[in-house]
Amino acid sequence: MARIKSIKYHVLRDTPQPVLMPEDARPDRKRNKQLFENRIAFVCLLWHPTGQLYCGLTAFNHDIFARFDPQTEKFTSLRYQDVAEEFEVKIHRSLCLARDGAIYGATATLYTLDRRLETPGGAIFRFEPKSGKIEKLCIPLPRDYPQTITLDEERKLIYGMTQPVFKFFVYHLDSGEVENYDYMGSITHISALDDAGCYWGTWDTVKHNLFKYDPRTRKIAYFNHGLPEGARFADIMYRGAGPVDCMLNGQDGFLYIGTTGGTFCRLDPRSGQAAYLGRPHPTKRLPGLALLDKRRILLAGGDEEGGYLAIYDRKTGGFEHLGEIVEPRSGKRLYRVHDLCLSGDRKTAYIAETDVPSRSGYLWACQLEA
Question: What is the pTM assigned to this prediction?
Answer without folding.
Answer: 0.97
